[in-house]
Amino acid sequence: MTIAACILLGACSGGRKNAPFIKSVYVTTPVKQETEITKNYSGIIEEAHCINLGFKTAGQLSRLWVKEGDYVRQGQLLAELDTVDYQLAVEALQIQYDQLKDEMGRTAQLFQERSISANDYEKATAGLEQLAVQLEANKNKLAYTKLYAPTNGYVNQINFSPAEMVDAGTGVFELLDVSQLEVSLDIPASLYMQRDRFTGFECQTTCGDIYSMRLLSLTPKADSYQLYRMRLGFKEKTGNHLTAGMNAEITIHLSATDTLRTGHALPLSAIFLDHGDTYVWIVSADSTATKRHVTLHHTTSKAQAIVSGVSGNDQVIRAGIRNLQEGEKIQVIASPSETNVGGLL
């Protein structure tokens, strides 16, 4: 029995010595690149215009009909100037015009009777027309003493108080035109250089609403921070809950390049060099390692390589590629489940 036991132990020891060692590896599946890329940036909702409103004539401010923060509608009366002097000027010219008009009637009758020359008649006619123009100009000045809102918006600032003198064209009100809101944001130079690939824009507000946007303008000059100002407009009508100054998240959609359209993403750990060429290890159907040549296009910030030469059905070895040989038998280790950390369940 002792001799038989020794023979059995020797046979087992010899079997273990001849059994081949199989390497264990982790694999991954190449991920085809999307045909569209998105970039997210922060933006600010702004009014379409900020209008400085002023009177078209000078005078003393007599009354303000609105206050800061009020919402006004187009055509609403905002302020008035003192109209006493303008009213007197209109009345004086009206008297002169009526008097000259009566005289012109008599002059026309004398001209028909050939009592005055044609030259005198033309002078009288020109004088009446000139006076009519002056009367109309003074009526316009009288009308200019009232300031109306040119559009819907909010009164953001009032620069004068009643009884102060105001020059013609001086800004009395700062009106925020909110009839059309827009979004402004700054983009880096790297994105500006890809502006020809922009395919669409979306805006998500702090309320959670998502709107489709259109490009209004893109400043071709960078600021001191090497950023380019972009302005976007809303394609559809926005609700009253959106106000100027509100933050928004802007998503910019870009079309992928030809390289990205045909490439697949792999971890950088799956790529290796052999005599200056780029390769990966593929797991064959018989569980052997096969070396395959791939073309490396570029790497991403997520430690991934964009390559061509593989498909989404390939099993690429991502860990354990050191010292592998062509046709070598391997064992694939199953990746642990994200919901079963440590394989406890």
From TrEMBL:
Q: Which residues form a coiled coil?
A: 83-138
Any one Gene Ontology cellular component term annotated for this protein: efflux pump complex
Q: Which InterPro entries match?
A: MdtA-like_BSH, RND_pump_MFP, YknX-like_C
Q: Name one GO molecular function term.
A: efflux transmembrane transporter activity
* Annotated Multidrug resistance protein MdtA-like barrel-sandwich hybrid domain residues: 56-171
Query: Keywords of this protein's UniProt record, alphabetized?
Result: Coiled coil
Establish whether keyword Hydrolase is in the entry.
no
Domain of life here? Bacteria
Which residue range or ranges hold the YknX-like C-terminal permuted SH3-like domain?
264-332
The keyword Transcription regulation is annotated on this UniProt entry: no
Entry's family note:
Belongs to the membrane fusion protein (MFP) (TC 8.A.1) family.
**Name under which the protein is recorded:** Efflux RND transporter periplasmic adaptor subunit
Provenance organism: Candidatus Odoribacter faecigallinarum
